[in-house]
Structures are given as structure tokens and as C-alpha cells.
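Hi R.,

Here are the chain sequences for the assembly we discussed:
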Amino acid sequence: SYELTQPPSVSVSPGQTARITCFGDASPKPYVYWYQQKSGRAPVLVIYEDNKRPSGIPERFSGSSSGTMATLTISGAQVDDEADYYCYSTDISADHRGVFGGGTKVTVL
Amino acid sequence: QVQLVQSGAEVKKPGASVKVSCKASGFTFTRYGISWVRQAPGQGLQWVGWISAYNGNTLYAQKLQGRVTMTTDRSTSTAHMELRSLKSDDTAIYYCARRGEHIDYWGQGTLVSVYS
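And here is the predicted structure of the full complex:
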């Protein structure tokens, strides 16, 4: 079955750039979505269709995709960005069932 | 504004069934689907399944196929997820979420605890 692989953790200093990767080897490559989940809260959509930002999401969040890798970039990370981040996509070989990556804990300190 | 309000926490014994509800407001219910996602304690997100509020079509995670049933009540804009033959590793927060082109708005989550 289709799997999405993320690093377990990423650390970044305030004001620096954090990059979170999501590896998935489906072909053709479906869109990737990114969700932010703060402790004890429901997830929030921060990027959709690889690189689109929903209204209300700060511009410092951006997404990109190339080959088998999707990347969420937080430019000028803030302490408030500390959270778990999950990539999500669909398994084309399984009727487009949803698949989440394992999640990446982003620490800003 | 878009809101998804879920039913309260449940405590069940192994082998029992649980039904979680998700009441939608602030959008035209039948133009969207509802996805269900769960999160075991300290773990990541796991996709459970999806139902179209337009025609009732469903798609379930393969590992839960046969134990899960999703339904909608268009008269009350409410989605339901029933999970049967509960096991201890079904203990999780269950989220409903609106799905149009993608999953965007989420409910607050419902904790389902399974223990003897």
C-alpha cells in the first residue's frame, strides 16, 4: 500500500527556515496536503494541492513538490509554529483512499 | 461559519460498538463529503474513511473494512460513524472533517476509550 514518509522531528531557531519533507513514490504523483496540529487541538489545513495556501494562513508557510518529494517550508519560523505537521495524499492504486504521513514534530527554540 | 460539532466522549468494553455523530453547519451539507480520521494516544493521524453527503457513497480504510459503517442524515446535516467489535487498539480520538476537493474543516474530536 502507498506510504508517505516524514522525518520524526525538525528543530529550528526563531526567524530561521524550517523544511519538512514528505516522500511518496506513487506515479502519477497525487496532490499533497499539509496539516498543522497543535497539542490537544484538531488539525488545521496549511497547504493544499502541493503549494496553495488557504485564506488566513500566514505567507511564511509554503509548499512545493518535485519528483517523489513534497516539502513544507516555514520561512521565518515563529514560536507559535511549534506543532506536529502531517502530509496527506491519496492512494491512486486503492480507489483514492486517504494516506497520512507519520508526522513531524517541529520545535522552535 | 463552517462548524462540525461532534458527540461526546465514549467508554466501551471490548467487543461492543460505538457510534459517533458529527453535526455540520455553515455550508450546504449535500455538496460535500465527510471524512473520518482517528488518532491513537500519542500517535499520528490515521484515515478511517469517507462518505458522500450527496449520494451516500462510502470508502473505508481496508484494515477497518467490515467493522465500520458511515451514514449521513441529510435532514439534520449530520454524519455518523459506527465502529463494531471494538478492540483496545481502537482507543483514539475520532475526528470528522469536511471534504470537498480536499479535507479542510475539522470537528473538535471525540475520544473513544475501549477497555475492560
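The longest strand of chain A covers residues 83-91. Chain A touches chain B at residues 1, 31, 33, 35, 37, 42-45, 48-49, 54, 84, 86, 88, 94-103 (CB under 8 Å).

Let me know if anything looks off.

Best,
T.
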